[in-house]
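Sat 14:20. Reprocessing the chain from the morning session after the first attempt stalled halfway. Input below, unchanged.
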Amino acid sequence: MRTAKLNNNIIEGYLSLLNNLSQSNKLKLISRLNESVKTDVPDKKSSFKKAFGAFESNQTAEEIIDEIKKSRLFNREIESF
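Finished this time. Tokens:
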């Protein structure tokens, strides 16, 4: 029940902000909101899930470690006082 009240407060806050918009701007906003609702949410979730899993490579662990170590750059300069 508490989240429903919070959501209503958020919606009322947005409505009070949008009251000053012109009619054409309100229609544009409605159109954009409508399009955002039509987007496929499962695609976003499936792309998130694709971020997990095993790392695949033809290199050995030692080769990967060597490559990482060789790509490091050390360019620290000590400033004098």
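Helices lie at 2-18, 23-38, 41-49, 61-71.
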